[in-house]
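FAQ: What does a ligand-bound record look like?

Like this one, built around copper (II) ion:
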Amino acid sequence: MRFIGLKSAMLAAGLMFAGAGHAAPQAATAPATTPPSAAIMAPAPAATPVADTPAPAATPVADPDMLAMDGAPVMKPVKGIGDAVDGDIGIQPQVTKNGQRAADFHNGILLWVISAISIFVLILLFIVIFRFRAAANPVPSKTAHHTGLEVAWTLIPVLILVLLAIPSIGLLQAQFKPAPKNAITLKATGNQWYWTYSYPDNGGFEITANLLKEKAEVAPGERARTEDDGPRLLATDNRVVLPVGVPIRLITTSADVIHSWAMPAFWIKLDAVPGRLNETSFTIEKQGLYFGQCSELCGPKHGYMPIAVEAVPLDVYNRWVVAKGGKPFDPNAAAAPVAEPAAAPAPAPAAGNAAAPAPTTNQAATANPAGAGNTGN
Ligand SMILES: [Cu+2]
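The answer part, i.e. the structure of the complex:
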């Protein structure tokens, strides 16, 4: 534990200096080994590339450490963070604003209200059972109506529901607030039974995440899960890497049947529907390794398509992106150019479909390169 404290302090110091201008060398050693217990990331990383404009393209260097990041486990899982704990009940510790808001709503309001109502109804039930049983109450009352009581038991529940609806609708609205323009897009595509991810704002490179099998299940030479990879059925061969403190635009779709990209620690569960793009956004506020699963019954191996997200500082993220052959994300430059590619791909296929002679035979579709492109979308 003393080690962790020391490393966190070193990282904090490193980040402070990184803000001063030379980001890459500082972060090169520290964050890769940083445990998720490191301080919550403020949107500070935005300050990193301020120093000079050409730097972001040049500074992040592809180094072997980063290439290993989505293969070999760099960040180790911490029990209780981003994962369920045996015997625990309730909601996982939340690392996004909406998640914290929802957890507070659940723990601070909903739980108390439903407990009070359940106890109240139970007391009424016991009164009926004991006080009005045939032996204790041989001559039952003939009362059929009581206006005051009827108004009360209609109005009070309505009032409770209205009071609950106010924070509930606010939360719903916050969950589907469109991502800001400087967001990084992560596109998750469900497949039977694995996930593919692409990073359209970082040059569009792709990674594929498969379940890591247990030692007894792998073929000779095949990589088996270790404890450093994560828990059984949750560890993946490639992890999704995302920056902390930067808004993420999550887009889901599917190549076959309906899947659902669910990450409990982010308060995210978004269906991945073939032929559709679903969108939501979130900002991870804490470094760490988080686990989730496909949460839609998508076939016999539905339980075998886990999700592992590694949340790292922006400069580490950028180095990973470069190592994957992508282009690093510059939060300052992003606002303008991101908007266009994000908007362009969506309407393009629709327009293509409309413009291309849709009613004609499939001969046209196969001959038309635009049509071939559409199917991939
Ligand atoms: Cu699935």
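Follow-up question: can I read anything off the structure? Yes, for example: The first helix runs from residue 2 to 20.
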